[in-house]
């Protein structure tokens, strides 16, 4: 009988359940509508997206690193897949553990009754969401660490490959140099000596018919060509000077440069370095200056006028060429003779002083009586004053 009324009873109970809910009043407000919960959920979703992207990068880097290691270690028979799988397994286990912990925390949060709230959100829900965020951050850090490890291993692998490639390239280079050296010298190996051995044997000393090294032979050809060109250029066509002719040309050039230097250096002469000029050109230049500037006081022949006689042995301010140069250069203002240093160059002053000295011993038409002190051309000034009051060049 009970079996007879079981099905209708179940149907009645199912029909009564909606009405029982209406009778209990409106549903309670969900915690997911809380602003703090929404913010934490947004952070959780954002971290999940970051974890997904970073996980994709780590997996791609691991696959690339695995291919590189597989190529490099293939000859050694090592299988790096186990290490990579181990790393990825650790990462996945941590991620799984984090998700499991997240689910456990969520279940615990759902199971425990709400005792107090934080900003309208129950403490259990709040701390559960924070735990999820913490776990996501931990997974994120783990992924970043594994990515860093993969990148470091890839860098070491690249450096090792570069070293191996450099070493591999060095061997052929040495080999090429060795082959070049053998070719330049036409060396023969020991097992080839029998092919070039002559029949000449003296006390066990054999003779080989070695060819001359190509570099020596080519150098000899170059010397022959150079000798022919040299002979034609210097001894047949005379299109270039011989060593003697070149030396003479250089000497002429050096003499011209010397004269130019002396002409330039002459302007640096002063009363301490001036020397007596004896060449005709210099004395002629001095005579022109004397005639146009000094003859008015000393007469054209140097016999004296307002100024003293320049042809005798007596001088008022010294008879050496340096004394005469100094007297002309600075003048004797207290006796009426001006300074000529601003009118003539040092070379012209030297020429004028040398010309004045050349007047000594000449016979002027009307010589003035001696003035000053006797000057010996060989021994220098002597103390025999004649007239110290005269106003003159001397």
Fold topology:
Layout lengths: L5 H19 L10 H39 L7 H31 L5 E2 L2 E2 H63 L7 H4 E6 L2 E4 L5 H23 L6 H24 L13 H14 L1 H4 L15 E2 L5 H10 L15 H13 L14 E4 L3 E2 L13
Helix pairs in contact: 2-4, 3-4, 8-11, 10-11
Describe the structure.
- The protein is mainly alpha-helical and 394 residues long.
- It contains eleven helices and seven strands.
- It has helices at 6-24, 35-73, 81-111, 123-185, 193-196, 214-236, 243-266, 280-293, 295-298, 321-330, 346-358, and strands spanning 117-118, 121-122, 197-202, 205-208, 314-315, 373-376, 380-381.
- Strands 5-6-7 form a three-stranded antiparallel sheet, with no helix packed on it.
- A hairpin with a 2-residue loop joins strand 1 (117-118) and strand 2.
- Helix 3 (81-111) runs antiparallel to helix 4 (123-185) and helix 8 (280-293) crosses helix 11 (346-358).
- The longest helix has 63 residues, at 123-185.
- The radius of gyration is 60 Å and the shape is elongated.
- The termini are far apart.
- The model is unreliable at 16-25 and 387-394 (pLDDT under 50).
